[in-house]
Write a structure and sequence with these properties.
2 domains, 425 residues, 22% strand, Aminopeptidase, 6-stranded mixed beta sheet, binds zinc ion, 4-stranded antiparallel beta sheet, Alpha-Beta Plaits, alpha/beta
Length: 425
């Protein structure tokens, strides 16, 4: 056994599972729903906890009027009048690159409370699980990152590069917190070489995210009395033509996808979420408005994806005289998430995979996720980034959201192993 392994086992032994579970419970009890004052409370919790742990903590108020009017601002879908950034540093020996462990503290609303067996913000520990809103997405992951950094710090093991821990808010509705963090890092001249986001990946490694663009379609018709419908034009029927064209477009866009995305039936979904048309049962409707989401491929820009959808609708004018005169209008609004990817052969990916294998004895799966996240902002800033964390994204945003305590501890141990030996492969 080499000395790194010895260091590693000493540090791993320093993680007290009860303290980890207790920390997850305390954070989940803060109902930090995006846009509520508790979002700031959760950020302040981490600022205080990390200060108490002896980390070097930078806490600042987000300048929302400035950030939200920048050309590259990633978007915000809730009203928010305050935000706090929190960045902690655990110094390394200076001989290696800096690692950032980043997690968001905002959560989505609990939804229908009658679907919950417990109060969403009174966490319950039972059967090896912690249950509550935000357990999986992603307070348990952030606590795992915190306790990994804490164990390394407490053990006094020399690590080559600085370790940074960031808590961000506003992730669920666009990425305000990470956008602000990147601004802060640039202003302070802090050079981050790689980033791990412990979002729920079921302890698989996710080095890529597809993008997602929100759109609105407006189909127009000509209203008449339904008894004379042939003299009018139904906007619903014109929208149905668009629906068929979009289904064909989705199939074409998913014909040959990047190997990282091949595990998904539909890697880049094109989905209609809302349709509103007509205002009277016996009137031919003259307006149909639909909203949806267009997936962006890993090797595509949002502009290219937008053009593909617009071209598919424009092509309808060749087959439908009404649409030639009254083309379906496309508006792009709301979240506009670019895709992002880190090369799966990057040392960050291979090293985290090796650390996971050292802890569990299993080789983790490596693939891209079909949703957008803060990963894109970090990759866009030139920081190789991957997601690796406890919990299943399928239970994120769902009632009775839960996370496995064993998986939280495994994540903590993998991160410790990586932090101590970041070039493990
Ligand atoms: Zn999340």
């Amino acid at each position: 056994m080499d000395s790194r392994r010895t260091h590693s086992s000493d540090v791993l032994d320093g993680v007290d599972p009860r303290q980890v579970v207790d920390a997850v419970e305390r954070v989940v009890a803060i109902a930090s729903i995006g846009g509520t004052p508790a979002e700031v409370t959760a950020q302040e919790f981490f600022a205080q906890a990390w200060t108490d742990d002896g980390f070097d903590v930078d806490t600042w108020h987000l300048d929302l009027p400035d950030l939200t009017t920048r050309a590259d601002f990633p978007g915000m879908e809730v009203d928010r009048c305050a935000g706090v950034g929190v960045l902690a540093r655990i110094p390394g020996t200076g001989s290696g690159p800096a690692t950032l462990l980043l997690g968001h503290t905002d959560v989505v609303p609990p939804g229908d409370l009658s679907a919950w067996h417990t109060d969403p913000f009174t966490p319950v520990v039972a059967d090896g699980q912690i249950i509550g809103r935000g357990t999986t997405d992603m307070k348990a992951g952030l606590v795992a990152a915190w306790f990994a950094a804490r164990a390394v710090h407490t053990a006094g093991v020399p690590v080559p590069g600085d370790i940074y821990l960031a808590a961000v808010s506003g992730e669920e509705d666009g990425g305000l917190g990470t956008f602000a963090l990147l601004d802060r890092l640039a202003a302070r001249g802090i050079d981050i070489a790689r980033c791990i986001i412990p979002e729920p990946t079921d302890l698989d490694i996710v080095p890529a995210n597809g993008g997602a663009l929100t759109f609105r379609l407006i189909a127009r018709g000509a209203a008449t009395h339904a008894s004379r419908r042939r003299e009018g034009v139904s906007a619903i029927e014109k929208f149905a033509l668009a629906l068929t064209a979009l289904a064909e477009l989705e199939a074409a866009r998913n014909g040959a996808v990047d190997p990282l995305m091949q595990r998904w039936d539909v890697a880049y979904p094109l989905s209609i979420g809302t349709v509103q048309a007509g205002d009277w049962a016996s009137t031919v409707p003259d307006l149909c408005i639909a909203e949806g989401r267009l997936g962006v491929a890993l090797d595509e820009t949002p502009d290219q994806a937008r053009a593909a959808l617009e071209q598919a609708l424009a092509a309808l004018s060749h087959t439908d005289p009404w649409l030639a005169e009254h083309p379906i209008e496309v508006q792009w609004w709301g979240g506009q998430f670019a895709p992002g990817r880190t090369d799966p052969a990057h040392p960050l990916v291979t090293s985290v995979a090796a650390a996971h294998e050292q802890i569990t004895g299993r080789v983790p799966a490596i693939y891209g996720a079909p949703y957008g996240s803060d990963l894109r902002l970090l990759v866009g800033a030139g920081i190789p980034t991957l997601q690796y964390g406890p919990g299943d994204s399928a239970v994120a945003h769902a009632p009775n959201e839960w996370v496995s305590i064993d998986d939280v501890l495994t994540c903590t141990r993998t991160l410790i192993t990586f932090l101590i030996s970041p070039d493990l492969t």
